[in-house]
Amino acid sequence: DDDDYDYDDDDDDAIESNQNMTDNPISFKDKVVIITGSGGGLGKQYALQYAQRGAKVVVNDLGGTLGGSGSSNKAADLVVSEIESKGGIAVANYDNIVTNPTGILQTAINSFGRVDILINNAGILKDASFAKMTQKQFEDVLDVHLNGAFKLTQLCWPIFQKQKFGRVVMTASPAGLYGNFGQANYSAAKLGLVGLCETLAKEGVKYNIKVNAIAPLAKSRMTETILPPDVLNKLLPEKIAPLVLYLTSDIVDSSGSIYEVAAGLFAQIRWERSGGLYLNPNKSFTPEAILNKLKDISSFDPSTTEYPTQLNDYNFVYSKTSMLPEN
Length: 327
Ligand code: NAD
What we know:
The protein is of the alpha/beta class. The protein contains 12 helices and 8 strands. The protein has an 8-stranded mixed β-sheet, with helices on both faces. Helix 4 runs parallel beside helix 5 (about 135-165) and helix 5 runs parallel beside helix 7. Residues about 1-15 have low confidence and may be disordered. The structure holds nicotinamide-adenine-dinucleotide (NAD). The site of nicotinamide-adenine-dinucleotide has 32 residues, from helix 2 and strand 6. Nicotinamide-adenine-dinucleotide binds near residues 62, 75 and 144.
């Protein structure tokens, strides 16, 4: 049954049939996918949908609490059993992404002989207002989200380069893009993942390695205490998975892109540079001059706004600005 768009509402029938109009369903047959933290929440839904489309799935989960303490095999085992009961292929791994990323890759290689796709999804929360946040709360969250994703991606990277195929998804967050009260550690880690994604996308170009980032919002134990139940029930994690699958398919074009995704929303996020203020660099500048020109600096007039995707060419900027009058 190819129809796995899980619409409950009759009003959505028309949309549903549009979405299914494809002659070439996206398949993950013969692909091996590692999904960190896939014993529950978003990762579990990814695991189920990859397996349903033929992938061999490494279900990694430490099985600890939301704050990252403790461990248990149960979370990963249950997801593997569910996949197997539906005829899919999966193996459980219980390694901590922080202390044993090698073990996670080893499970993929030992069980399936390869790895094609890596979904960096494992995460914890240690929320505290900034004034009260301890060094440990800050570092623990950076360790799981950012350092964990760094380590496992770097282990997979030479394999991806050699086989000239690799797909990576980084799990960012709206909290990283916009900031969120009580989440200084989490926001820093999540925007760090966006930067990592943007650089890896550039380094991956000649090896057919595509790296994208998502900023999701979905019902899971991370959100169930902060959002009301009626809202949560519209934010089902299975609605996020189709974008993740698309972004890791053979045919995906995007790399280095960021997507915000929640309920039925799928939207791309990008950087924007205002038309800006150009002054001759041979002049001396004063804070008052900045204040007087603040409107120019901060104006996102559509006719002059740019959407940079790489470092500015500073020689170009210099030559442009040094031609300006000095007074
Ligand atoms: P979740 O708690 O259900 O899933 C995270 C999983 O990661 C858990 O199963 C946990 O056991 C596992 N994990 C934690 N530390 C680990 C470690 N060191 N090694 C291996 N596994 C570990 O929460 P979720 O909402 O499904 O979160 C999935 C990802 O999505 C996270 O990166 C989270 O920050 C991100 N995210 C979620 C939301 C949301 O609205 N739910 C919003 C933005 C970002």
